[in-house]
Amino acid sequence: MKKIYFFLVAIFAATMSFGQSPGDIIITEIMQNPSAVTDANGEYFEVYNTTAGIIDMNGWIIKDNGANSHTITNGGPLNIASGAYLVFGKNSTIAENGGVILDYASSSISLTNADDEIILETGGGLEIDRVDYDGGPNFPDPSGKSMELSTMAYTSSANDIGSNWAEGSSAYGDGDLGTPGAVNDNSAPLGIAGHKIKGFKISPNPSSDNFINITTANNTTKNVQVFDMLGKRVINQEINTILNISNLTTGIYVVKVTENSISATKRLVVK
Ligand SMILES: [Ca+2]
Ligand SMILES: [Ca+2]
Ligand SMILES: [Ca+2]
Ligand SMILES: [Ca+2]
What we know:
- By secondary structure, the chain is mostly beta strands.
- It folds into 2 domains: 2-167, Immunoglobulin-like (Sandwich); 192-270, Immunoglobulin-like (Sandwich), CATH 2.60.40.
- The chain contains 2 helices and 19 strands.
- It has helices spanning 2-15, 39-42; strands at residues 25-31, 44-49, 55-56, 61-63, 69-71, 79-80, 85-89, 104-105, 116-121, 127-133, 147-149, 165-167, 201-203, 211-215, 222-227, 233-239, 242-244, 251-259, 262-270.
- The structure holds calcium ion (CA) (4 copies).
- Residues 129-131, 156, 159-160, 231 line the site of one calcium ion.
């Protein structure tokens, strides 16, 4: 009997998550400015469960850096299965919201068209994910289309980087473009925007040196920001070519270069 009990506990533990960690749920799509219907009806955002277990989001908090804060009150569990999506919005009536099937609605979640934040916290106040979109130049700034995270960038740190987002391209409901509740159309590789800055190269990469060379066709002064895999910015400098990385520990980083108002990202491996 004891054996069976432990077996059942093991199965339960494998399928239910008792304690959440940052990145377990990530924000994958944002419709901040619908066209087919008003913002008050048609705004939505989508989240994705990156873990192998079911996560109950009831009691979690959706907020921004401003006045928006909403505690999810579903009258029961708000479960999201492994590898599944949930869609949050303002108005759950499909005839009014542009044709989105919402999993949860609250009129107190507002998505400003310019820059805004979506922050997900557990009921205990642990931040699980956030996206600070800037309304351009780094993030797309569409109207009548959602912003979709690349499926190659489904992590809580990669979704902080604007170039990993693209405008929705599939029509849903009343004709706006997006994929609420379904896998995103955007599957651009990480750093695809690197092609926009001509000749953008990092060498050596992987690197075990104290310095790397960041070169472009123009080779004018550029702003370089380096983010670790938790999305924390660890370097922010103006350089021409040579970047001192002696303060970086072994690991994978995302290097964001802005030159002549164009931004691009590449992965950097530090050995
Ligand atoms: Ca809006
Ligand atoms: Ca807001
Ligand atoms: Ca994030
Ligand atoms: Ca989607």
